[in-house]
Amino acid sequence: MAYVDAIVQGILLGGLYALFAAGLSLIFGVMRLVNIAHGDFIVLGAYLALITIQMTGLHPFLALIIVVPVMALAGYAIQRGLLNRTLGPNLLPPILVTFGLAVVIQNTLLMGFSTDTRRLAAGSIETASLSLGPISIGWLPLLTFVVAVVLIVGLEQVFYRTAIGRAFRATSDDAETARAMGINTRHVHALAMALSFAVIAIAGVFLAVRSNFDPFSGPARLIYGFEAVIIGGLGSLWGTLAGGVVLGVAQALGAQISPAFQILAGHIVFFVILAVRPRGLFPRMD
Amino acid sequence: MSKSALRVTLGLILVAVVFASAPAWAGRADLRLYGEFMSYLALAVLWNLLAGYAGLMSVGQQAFVGLGAYVLFIGVVTLGMSPLLTLPVAFVVTGIAAAFFALLLFRLEGAYFAIGTWVAAESVALVFAGIPSLGGGAGMSLPAAAVRGIADSREMREFVIYWLLCGLGIGTLAAAYALIRSKPGLALMALRDNPMAAMSVGVDIKRIRFWTYVLVAALTGVIGAVIFLQKLRVSPQAAFSLPDWTVAVIFIVVIGGIGRLEGAVVGTVVYFVLRELLKDYGVAYLIVLGIVAILVVTFSGGGLWGLVEKHLRWSLMPTHRKRDG
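^ Those are the sequences you sent over. The predicted structure of the assembly is below.
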């Protein structure tokens, strides 16, 4: 029974990992950019929520009304002002710049907030749970999972049903031709990053409500998001959810064997998938 | 030997003599600093070959520093080997580990390769943290009796370790120079400048990348072993530290000039100067380094040395080739 419980909790944990992964997958899809500072921006979003709550007294989920647009604007500005300059045939510059950003964000947060761990208080939902026979499901993990699913459905709609989604796909397929057709690809790239940062903000708040965080919590979030992307299959949003779930279940089962084995179990599953299915479980057909 | 190669060789010998004689004229604290400088120079030269020439952007080199360190401790403490004898073992073990990682990680491209190397390093760290006989997360120390095998007096031991670090620093720089001027070096330079064109004229990119990755890892393992021979204590957190063994090295190479041999030298000097200047302000030097690195990549891809080359048309370690006849 303990294992059934672990699997259920792992699936729900996968929702959080899908939130980490969705923003990463989105910008890779549009501009082949991997944001090494992705996890640190998630943590930055969490601190932004912390400040918002301290100033306004809002509930963490209501603080999203402020955190999401602010982060989206920041994403637009970072892409337009900095990252667009690094995009080109050479793969190293964007990696190096986002790597530099990661270190700057971590150490600036350290100077501003110290190494104290923080958490956002969300009231009774933190501990409330739903009993299904012998298994109890926390409302918060369930809500996280539902939010992840809704978000992915929403992103799919944006990608395949809207004008901006068409611009995303056109830029992704062939930026040169997209430009020739009158698309301002710099603007499109920046919009994609803004969308990614909106997802980052949501991921940051859910992370901060569910667990403690400190200025150095980012890299591990990047790694879980990355593992979910690779396990699920590059470029597929539903794949990131599947990848997140596989990773969450692997970690939960690993923790059953020994608490010290939790994270390593996730890494091992990642390497196994890389060995037997290098394109992931659900690669995009193209 | 060409005129420029002769000049570089003499220059390197001069630098080696100056540094090797440091125990005669430098204090204990300065000697430690010079030794640390040499270890970072070696790590930077190697990472530059990997990322700057072979295009393999690894952020997981701490895996090999840590593995080398653990080979030393396991060899000495568990198997009773002499510390210096573990160094060639560290070379072989980390090289084999790297070959194994390469099988999986080379399936990932560009930035995904970068994060993959990071996951590999995290995994190795977790494995070592989980082995109780190696002290788990707390780590282990080198027994005093074992280190006496290097030399009897503490002072002499410090000198020997310092000379080892000097040898690694200047040795890797000299070896990298010789490599770049050799035939495989020509392939590496072609790979750096244009991978597609290199492939089309018959450069076996996969093979070159694989061997660069494996040899760089093997040497990184030896450096790790010597660094931790000096520290006398190892723990997974210290041995597999991303900030210490990879972040600092990436900043050094990027600021100095990626894809240029002189870049590693210039970058290491800048890194140590900045760190010493800002040492009273906690992690401020990391923030400054990060911002400088971002600006360098965005506005001058070639780093500080790239600027020197562009404006003075001058190279300290020339690797350009002239046409025959």
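The first helix of chain A runs from residue 2 to 31. Residues 2-123+137-276 of chain A form a domain with the ABC transporter involved in vitamin B12 uptake, BtuC fold (CATH 1.10.3470).

Shout if you want it in another format.
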